[in-house]
């Protein structure tokens, strides 16, 4: 079994990027959604992405942004993967010439297989708890809503932290995990010790 990939999302400060990289994150995320307390500006993001060494993936998170808004970010920030967290269609996600993942907002009644069929070109499907504000809510959901044997690369998120990620990885066996609130000391302020503990938990679960 391959090791679970780890994305640390919602980075806003250079020291948080360095902490994520030093502790072994595979990907880091930048939120381009102004209502979020973790939102970054274009120049701020360009400076943060410039800190990344090779083989750490830069991810840009968008919620119902227009094509022009996404392109304005891409003109200046070298993002390698896009993460769409709103109501974007497959065609809207596809118009930027970059690979992407699509978030499903999980709650009882959501059929992940049907959701997946609506997003055939996504590189993977991210599952997050349904919260007001589209995400980053620090809330878990019922992992049994994920169908056994789900065949797309699955990114598990929603309320993960160092305390629950071991059980989450052992139960769901996702391709990757994504965390924001669970490695923060305050909204948008990452905590290096929590990042270290989270990543250690994933590696522990990987065995
Ligand atoms: O981080 C945010 O502020 C955010 C805003 C809007 C949509 C998604 C957002 N973050 C993503 O939400 C999930 C769950 O985050 P958490 O760990 O529960 O805080 C994760 O994929 C973040 O990348």
UniProtKB/TrEMBL annotation:
Domain N-(5'phosphoribosyl) anthranilate isomerase (PRAI): 6-199
Sample GO molecular function, one term: phosphoribosylanthranilate isomerase activity
Pathway(s) per entry: Amino-acid biosynthesis; L-tryptophan biosynthesis; L-tryptophan from chorismate: step 3/5
Enzyme Commission no: 5.3.1.24
InterPro entries registered for this protein in UniProt: Aldolase_TIM, PRAI_dom, RibuloseP-bd_barrel, TrpF_fam
Top class in the EC scheme: isomerase
Classification via Pfam families: PRAI
UniProt cross-references to Gene3D superfamilies, sorted A to Z: Aldolase class I
BP GO terms, sorted: L-tryptophan biosynthetic process
Catalysed reactions listed for this entry: N-(5-phospho-beta-D-ribosyl)anthranilate = 1-(2-carboxyphenylamino)-1-deoxy-D-ribulose 5-phosphate
Keywords per UniProt: Amino-acid biosynthesis, Aromatic amino acid biosynthesis, Isomerase, Tryptophan biosynthesis
Superkingdom to which the source organism belongs: Bacteria
Similarity comment: Belongs to the TrpF family.
Protein name per UniProt: N-(5'-phosphoribosyl)anthranilate isomerase
Name of encoding gene: trpF
């Amino acid at each position: 079994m391959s090791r679970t990939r780890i994305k640390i999302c919602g980075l806003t400060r250079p020291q948080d990027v360095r902490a994520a990289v030093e502790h072994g994150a595979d990907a880091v995320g930048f939120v381009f959604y102004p209502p979020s307390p973790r939102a970054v500006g274009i120049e701020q993001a360009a400076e943060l992405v410039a800190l990344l060494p090779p083989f750490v993936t830069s991810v840009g998170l968008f919620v119902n942004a227009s094509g022009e808004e996404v392109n304005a970010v891409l003109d200046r920030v070298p993002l390698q993967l896009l993460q769409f967290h709103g109501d974007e269609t497959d065609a809207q996600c596809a118009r930027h010439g970059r690979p992407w993942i699509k978030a499903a907002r999980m709650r009882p009644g959501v059929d992940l297989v049907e959701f997946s069929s609506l997003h055939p070109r996504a590189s993977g499907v991210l599952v997050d708890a349904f919260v007001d504000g589209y995400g980053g809510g620090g809330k878990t959901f019922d992992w049994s809503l994920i169908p056994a044997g789900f065949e797309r690369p699955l990114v598990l998120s929603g309320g993960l932290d160092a305390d629950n990620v071991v059980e989450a990885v052992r139960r769901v066996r996702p391709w990757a995990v994504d965390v924001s609130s669970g490695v923060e000391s305050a909204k948008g302020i990452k905590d290096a010790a929590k990042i270290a503990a989270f990543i250690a938990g994933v590696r522990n679960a990987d065995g």
